[in-house]
């Protein structure tokens, strides 16, 4: 499962690089044509240099606007962050509940409640995504919910 997640992440990154590169390349010839036709070249040359620092900032907002990809959901991000923290704490604790609670700064009961709440939100969003026909998003949300359930079971065993 981790290998599949890693491959999916790599594919996403490669796609993001190629898709962010295409609009910039198509915009560059359009900017160069007015600069060539303008009579005052020194007046137009500062404009492209001023827009050059803005170009690296432009791909970042373009990523959430990709077709088929929405803006990043804070619930999903919170679930992933909590999952990372829990897995790290579980690895470090090696079966000791006190070490887990100390690493996360919360009692086990609060952790379990937070996991259940986030899991419920993920499942609800997966149902909505499925109704909208976003099969990939629905599967990803369900996979995250399953991971949280497994972490919840591992925490429950730490009694």
Quick overview of this protein structure:
The chain has eight helices and no strands.
Highlighted features:
159 residues, mainly alpha, 8 helices, globular
Q: What would you call the structural class? A: mainly alpha
Number of strands: 0
Q: How many separate domains?
A: 2
Fraction in helix: over 70%
> Helix and strand string, N-terminal first?
HHHHHHHH
The proportion of residues in beta strands is: under 5%
Indicate the radius of gyration in whole angstroms.
23 Å
Distance between the termini: 27 Å
Low-confidence stretches: 22-63
Taken from the alpha-carbon principal axes, the silhouette is globular
The main β sheet shows up as: none
Provide mean pLDDT, rounded.
65
Q: Treating each run of at least 4 consecutive H or I residues as one helix, how many helices?
A: 8
Write up this protein.
82% of the residues lie in helices and 0% in strands. By secondary structure, the chain is an all-alpha fold. The chain folds into two domains: 2-62, no CATH class; 74-156, no CATH class. Helix 7 (108-131) packs antiparallel against helix 8. The two termini are 27 Å apart. Residues 1-19 form the signal peptide. Keywords: Coiled coil, Signal. Residues 25-80 are annotated as: Disordered. Residues 25-55 have a biased composition (Low complexity).
């Amino acid at each position: 499962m981790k290998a599949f997640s890693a491959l999916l992440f790599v594919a996403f990154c490669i796609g993001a690089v190629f898709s962010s590169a295409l609009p910039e390349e198509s915009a560059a010839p359009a900017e160069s044509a007015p600069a060539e036709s303008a009579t005052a070249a020194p007046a137009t040359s500062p404009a492209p240099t001023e827009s050059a620092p803005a170009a690296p900032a432009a791909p970042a907002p373009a990523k959430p606007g990709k077709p088929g990809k929405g803006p990043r959901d804070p619930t999903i991000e919170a679930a992933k962050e909590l999952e990372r923290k829990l897995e790290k704490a579980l690895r470090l604790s090696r079966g000791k509940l006190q070490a887990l609670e100390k690493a996360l700064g919360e009692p086990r009961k609060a952790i379990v409640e937070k996991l259940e709440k986030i899991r419920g939100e993920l499942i609800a969003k997966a149902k909505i995504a499925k109704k909208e026909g976003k099969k990939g998003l629905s599967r990803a949300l369900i996979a995250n919910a399953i991971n949280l359930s497994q972490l919840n079971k591992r925490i429950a065993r730490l009694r």
